[in-house]
Amino acid sequence: MYYIINIPSNIIFLHFKNRNGRPARNLEYLHSNMKTIILGNGISGITAARHIRKRSDHDIMVISDETDHFFSRTALMYVYMGHLRFSDTQPYEPWFWEKNRIELLRSRVENIDFQQKRLFTATGHILAYDHLVLALGSQSNRFGWPGQDLDGVHGLYHYQDVQAMERHTPGLNRAVVVGGGLIGVEMVEMFHSRGIPVTFLVREPDFWNAVLPPQEAAMVSRHLREHHIDLRLETELKEILPDAGGKKCTAVVTDKGETIACGFVSLTVGVSPNIGFLKNSPLETSRGILVNEYLETNLPDVYAIGDCAELRQPRPGRKAIEAVWYTGRIMGETLAHTLTGKRTEYDPGIWFNSAKFFDIEYQVYGDIRAQLPDDQTTLYWEHPGGKKSIRINYLSASGRVTGFNLMGVRYRHEVCDKWIRKGAHVEEVLQNLGLANFDPEFYPQHETELVALYNRVTGKNLILKQKRGLPAVLAFLQKSA
Ligand SMILES: Cc1cc2nc3c(=O)[nH]c(=O)nc-3n(C[C@H](O)[C@H](O)[C@H](O)COP(=O)(O)OP(=O)(O)OC[C@H]3O[C@@H](n4cnc5c(N)ncnc54)[C@H](O)[C@@H]3O)c2cc1C
Predict the structure, then answer these.
(1) Which pTM was predicted?
(2) 273 lines ligand 1 (CB under 6 A)
(3) Is the CB of 274 inside a 6 Å radius of any atom of ligand 1?
């Protein structure tokens, strides 16, 4: 006997039962394809879907409650700032999904029966899967401050947060942004772009100094003040005050006892895996969903990728949760190999990240820490204008390069990556530093200044052999090892 469990759109599921009414076996489909459901349409879920499609004929369904289509979360700020329309942040045209037979469902999954391999959505769908990929992303942290649920208090993570910012913008007297990290500084710039005065509360002595070395952290703090941001360092939020009606935020109180009137409070004190609804399930979780090096959870045929995945054994020097775009992309592609027959270990590669602090672009490759480890030496050059810097870290004993930190200067990802991977000596790197330079043509080049600095510090007499130029870069990248 069978009954139709659900018809989400064009897929019909048949459910076979035995005499005692229990499922006789897993759900069967009218057609026999493997059914993969991906929960989350962010970079990790969509990368997995695209690569499963490239490599197989599986039925693929992607479910998300946030938006109909995948968009670039990292570009959300530019939508508010008017540089992009929301549709411009969507890398694929709406026809892409049907053409590639990736079925999309806009709904919230509220419960999962892992034993029966079924999902239950807020819109009443019951969906069966063979493989389930959890790509749930993050949510903004809130630490229980009085007033944190008032109208006008928001984080910035989901598209709906930008819509909330829009709603509150007309007539806004001041925004207070709490939390000195990457999303905080984006919100500061967003409000600033609309001419709204911003107060920025940062608990640490400098902006993002848990991640940036002291000179770079100080550079960003200076730059923010140059843009007339009311930056309050070593200042924490104590409470958010309501208006007379008790509903809307009207001011914040800091731990210094100041009251700052504002119509909007941005809480940007980090993010956490968005896994609340899974907490009392058989799925093993800690901060995130625990996975092994193959991105497998403790349950058969259930995987987790992207921001919500927590590696049980991260590689040395790496974090168990790396909530960045590139991690999601690599995890999505890796898992697609496993799900299409080639079990593949997740390799996070060399650490890489990039951002922008108002006018200062930031890139990091490899191991750059706020506090220099004892076994490393750092070579730090800063432009007299105070808006550009280059830092190269290397092992003191061997000279092996471990990381690059760039502010206001662009270096090529592949070149830095290759140097770090192959353990290039700092002097080899310095003499060929032009290979890394990725600034636009006619921009000043600072590689000779860096070499001169190294010579001054070490008493050596190196010269810059390789200037900027694509043919040399291609030759370098093609050379093995
Ligand atoms: C403003 C901002 C700027 C950023 N800038 C950078 C940057 O410059 N560089 C960088 O590397 N990283 C950046 N990041 C981080 C990066 O965007 C994230 O690491 C990445 O988008 C996470 O992708 P994901 O696929 O893991 O999850 P997400 O993109 O969060 O996708 C998960 C989706 O699943 C949905 N979902 C969750 N639970 C359910 C459920 N139960 N039912 C249905 N749907 C559900 C969510 O609503 C969401 O749409 C930024 C993040 C933000 C918020």
Answers:
(1) 0.91
(2) no
(3) yes
